[in-house]
Amino acid sequence: MMNPLTRTLCTVSVALMALVACGEPPSAPEAELRAWVADGVEAAESKERRNLVGMISESYVDGRGNERSDIENLLRLYFLRQNNITLLPNIEETVVYGDTAARIVMTVGMAGTNDGVLGFSADAYRFELELEKDGDDWQLIAARWGELGDEIK
Questions:
Q1: What is the Cβ-side half-sphere exposure of residue 5, based on CA atoms within 13 angstroms?
Q2: pTM of the model
Q3: Yes or no: is domain 4-147 CATH 2.60.40.1190?
């Protein structure tokens, strides 16, 4: 069982990585967001913490009081504990505002192998992500999440 700090790390990292294409042909910003997420998924599954942290705005703050540096520390801890990571995202809604801001609602299943008693861990979360385009790059500026079936906080 993961402690709350590890769970928060896992949740945010999954949120950064879990967007997938769906529905009609995407607008340019939506295509950029999918590419951003694909890069995040690859970085998470490869445990490339610095690449993931680079996808988070320096002004990131979430409702749980986490800042960018807190998320970086959570990623560090989670990657040390997990031998392998697999993400299974399902985007429920993507809204782009004026080509420079976006809101994404999604569900993500995540699994990892580790050296624990069972040798693996698995969870599912629902996320609401807020992103902002900074120059040519999308950056995560805020996130809310909760275990699947629970309230998003």
A1: 10
A2: 0.79
A3: no
